[in-house]
Specification:
- By secondary structure, the chain is an alpha+beta fold.
- It folds into 4 domains: about 50 residues, no CATH class; about 80 residues, Tyrosine recombinase, N-terminal domain (DNA polymerase, domain 1), CATH 1.10.150; about 160 residues, Intergrase catalytic core (hpI Integrase, Chain A, Orthogonal Bundle), CATH 1.10.443.10; about 55 residues, no CATH class.
- It contains 14 helices and 13 strands.
- The strands form 5 sheets. It has a 3-stranded antiparallel sheet, covered by helices on one side. A 3-stranded antiparallel sheet has the order 4-5-6. It has a 3-stranded antiparallel sheet with strand order 10-11-12, with no helix packed on it.
- A hairpin with a 2-residue loop joins strand 10 and strand 11.
- Helix 6 crosses helix 10 and helix 11 packs antiparallel against helix 12.
- The longest helix has 20 residues.
């Protein structure tokens, strides 16, 4: 019995492998199913006809695109958008992603390739966070491929991520701040002072110029485009910041009048602080402390000083409240309220509502302040021996209080 003929296009056999033929805009396309089973060729033909009807068919050239081409598109996207992380992207692509995925066709790429890559990277000793950053690069490249017109990828590919537990929990205390300030070189001390007070990122501070510092209104203006989220914001100048910045400005005007940068090293931009920072933190006893940890410390100090979360977020530049959930930053006032309110409720419950059982023959009357609705309510409590009485009723009740309205 000969196989049934498809309604659209045609299926034929060459060397034992079934091929399909279909038309798009009058142009014929021939494609191998790669299978000796007629049903596989029929399903491929139906898929191609569906792509033609829905406008997703971009020709057979798309089927031959490899992952290396998607990574090139991703690099171009970083260049166009002037992303500063393009250096890290080039490193990830060259060392890991292109050797692992570059030769794979996009149409054949699947989650199994990702799982195999993760297993190899774990075996090589890479951390979960490092692997996730690499997988995010792959995920971004695939997303850009689906956004092309015509799309270079017509299906969604799930890229599973590993569990991360890299939340930094340490804070720089005030005594540690003073020790570190003593050990740092002179050109890095102002960076520490400002970072510890307002929690700005290192990159934001290194771009800061004197034209952005307003001593009259005690403000520092971060221009739009100079921050991580490209939005400008205003930082307050308070505490030791004012004295430190004024002294730094006097030194800059006297020794380096042509340098407009607030933070510099002998009139030259500061490019790297890791070695000097590591040596100073070791001498100060602050092992493991990063400059970025000053952000978390500054936010916590603002909360302890009574600033609201919204104000603290505006100063530090955090866009969401996730920082407080992630780093478990809670203000001291909230902790005091959390301890005081349950105690007040318990005292009220034990002392005011149920009362203390009075001795025989003793009665008392307690009054509370008027409620918020303006109506005067009086709490009348009677005791008789060890039994509670409701008003003048001798029936036993579990609670010994009565609302008496007086108008």
């Amino acid at each position: 019995m000969s196989p049934r003929k498809p309604k659209l296009g045609s299926i034929y056999q060459r060397g034992g492998v079934f091929w399909i033929k279909y038309y798009r805009n009058g142009r014929p396309y021939r494609e191998s199913s790669g299978s000796e089973v007629y049903g596989d060729a029929e399903r491929l033909l139906k898929r191609r006809m569906g792509e033609i009807v829905t406008g997703k068919f971009a020709g057979l050239a798309v089927e031959r695109i490899r992952m290396r081409s998607l990574f090139d598109d991703l690099l171009e996207d970083y260049r166009v958008n002037e992303r500063t992380s393009i250096i890290q992207l080039r490193s990830r692509l060259k060392l890991h992603l292109v050797p692992a995925f570059g030769a794979i066709r996009v149409s054949e790429f699947s989650t199994n390739h990702v799982k195999k890559y993760v297993a190899n990277r774990l075996h090589a000793g890479a951390k979960n966070a490092t692997i996730n950053r690499e997988l995010e690069t792959v995920e971004r490249a695939l997303k850009l491929a689906t956004q092309c017109d015509p799309p270079k990828l017509v299906r969604q590919i799930h890229v599973p991520m590993l569990q991360e537990n890299n939340v930094r929990t340490g804070f720089l205390e005030d005594d540690g701040y003073l020790r570190l300030k003593t050990e740092l070189p002179d050109y890095l001390k102002p960076l520490l002072v400002v970072g510890y007070h307002v929690g700005s990122r290192l990159g934001e501070l290194l771009k800061l110029r004197w034209s952005q510092v307003d001593f009259v209104h005690s403000q520092i203006r971060l221009n739009p485009g100079s921050t991580k989220n490209k939005k400008g914001r205003t930082l307050p100048i308070y505490g030791g910041m004012s004295e430190c910045l004024l002294a730094l400005k006097s030194i800059s005007e006297a020794k380096h009048p042509k340098c407009d940068l607030v933070f510099h090293h002998d009139g030259q931009p500061i490019r790297e602080i890791r070695k000097a920072w590591a040596s100073a933190r070791k001498r100060a006893g602050c092992e493991g402390l990063l400059f970025h940890d000053l952000r978390r410390s500054a936010v916590r100090n603002m909360r302890l000083a009574g600033l609201s979360e919204i104000v603290a977020m505006q100063i530090s530049g955090h866009r969401t409240r996730a920082i407080f959930d992630r780093y478990d930053i809670v203000g001291v006032r909230e902790l005091q309220d959390a301890a005081l309110k349950p105690e007040q409720r318990l005292n009220k419950s034990l002392g005011t509502i149920p009362g203390t059982i009075a001795s025989s023959g003793q009665s008392q009357e307690k009054k509370t302040s008027p409620p918020s609705d303006g109506k005067l309510l009086t709490w009348v409590t009677f005791t008789c021996g060890k039994d509670w009485l409701r008003g003048m009723d001798l029936n036993h009740r579990p609670l010994g209080y009565e609302f008496a309205r007086r108008w």
